Amino acid sequence: MSEEQIRSLERQFDERIARDEKIEPKDWMPEKYRKTHIRQMSQHAHSEIVGMLPEGNWITRAPSLRRKVALLAKVQDEAGHGLYLYSATETLGISRDEMYEQLHTGKAKYSSIFNYPTITWADMGAIGWLVDGAAIINQVPLCNTSYGPYARAMIRVCKEESFHQRQGFEIMMKLANGTPEQKDMAQDALNRWWWPSLMMLGPTDDVSVHTEQSMKWKLKRKSNDDLRQQFIDQTVPQAELIGLTIPDPDLKWNEERGSYDFGEIDWDEFWQVVKGHGPMNKERMKARVGAWEEGEWIRDAAMAHAAKKQERKEKQAV
Amino acid sequence: MSTKNWPLWEIFVRSKNGLEHRHCGSLHAADSDMALENARDVYTRRNEGVSIWVVESKDITASNPENNGELFEPAQDKVYRHPTFYDLPDEVKHM
Q: Chain B interface, mutation test: which of A94, A299, A312, most B Cβ atoms within 10 Å?
């Protein structure tokens, strides 16, 4: 194809998206569109999969059966969401194994938030309330994104995720209304998860490299800073309601803007964690790679069993 | 690394009797039995289905969007296939 032809195709492609038409797997698409989607969707899938680790840590120690079934269901949903997203990404021509390989070698990233440790039960509350809360704010606009398989996966994910945040908030509420020790535990979890949750909404607009292109392709509908403000404005009253204090001395309602002003985010910490120097980066990858390698024999055994069954069936048919 | 990868399956779920099976996504499994079991866990955790079909992805033949013109455009100008094409007096009821 000549360069002029490609430019013309790209123009038509952009117009389709501007008209709110969806792009489906076999449609022509610019190489950059394909690559950007593979990157974002696979990172999203990886985040769901790695995201199971910090919470899986507490399933056996949940304080009641009610909490245990809820946490188990939440972690199972995360496995499901990872699988929806991996299979949606495969429609762009990358194999599942290639994606795993990229995750395991560190070539592909996952959400940095999962590189923080979960040291008390209150962390299960803080993760559901804050981390899932921030994730929902990020994800809801993606239900209308331009790539059909991604949009469809996100609709399922968002529908299922609304219970995740509620179960987290319920845990925090219960602890905040409990004994002084329980309330301290809740406050401590909020102190540790607040700033990393704000970072989850991505670098500030002035340094974010992907925003403009992503807006055009509807991979993004609002800027990182707008999403962060939305998250803060909706979360602060929830903390007040259960008597917990947001760990930000500069947090103040701004009457004029109708929003909260907030303190400086420590972006050095964010980039350190992204680069692999967070408290749990090594641990998470060790667990993930270990699960994959230790599962190899059973994946092979399943294939051998399937082949044997097929052979037997063919013999009987003769 | 394992040399034999589990093949990809397309999953179709009937949400309730009386409705058709609808495509809801795909997954990897060693064989059709495992694909059914995995589909149950991945796609019907909240009563989304009463019946599941699994089809190996490589067995699906799909039309090419490049041929959409010749395949689908001819139907666009055949307005006479729709009831609104026909002129009837207002007095005619129930037709």
A: A299
Q: How confident is the model at residue B1 (pLDDT cuts 50, 70, 90)?
A: very low
ipTM: 0.89
Closest CA relative to residue A54, chosen from A103, A109, A112, A124:
A124
Give the integer Cα–Cα distance in Å for B76 and A133. 46
Can you give the three-state secondary structure of A99-149, one letter per residue?
HHHHHHCCCCCCCHHHHCCCCCCHHHHHHHHHHHHHHHHHHHHHHHCCEHH
Radius of gyration of chain B (CA): 21
Residue B69 forms contact with A (CB below 8 Å): no
- Residues 113 to 152 of A: which have CB under 8 A from any B CB? 152
User: Taking the mean position of all CA atoms in its chain, how far away is CA B87?
Assistant: 36
Q: Is residue A90 within 8 angstroms of chain B, CB to CB? A: yes
Chain length of chain A: 318
* A189 and B CB contact within 8 Å: no
Report, as an integer, the average pLDDT of B66-84: 94
Classify B91 as helix, strand or coil: coil
Query: Residue A74 has which token pair?
Result: 């939440």
B-chain CB neighbours of A305 within 8 Å are 30-31
What the block records as the tokens of A316 is 């009987």
Give the gap in angstroms from C-alpha B6 to the nearest C-alpha of chain A.
7
